[in-house]
Amino acid sequence: MSVPATGSAELVAAGTGGDAAVYEVRGPLDFETVPSLSERGREMFAAGRHVVVDLSGVTHANSAGLALLLEWQRAARRTGARLSVRRLPAVLANLAAMSELGPYLPPDDAG
Fold it and tell me: May I ask the CATH class of domain 10-104?
């Protein structure tokens, strides 16, 4: 597995997990990478399905990453889909807790 160069991030379809479509984020979640991930992430919610976003490949993150996850949560709701988060990095979990946004990032039970 290759690690993206600094400043780039990937959103990769990783198959299915039960009734969910699983996507992996690889690389940094920051102000530089979030705009392109935001754009690519919108297609995840087609067909109103359950989507799991696995963040185990995130190399570092900041508040832009939290904003991206919240944006994806809104996109999921607009399309009738459901979003779960797998392996939320500690920095994002802490930011969500401090902002009282943790309930908007439901964990995936399988991961």
Answer: alpha beta
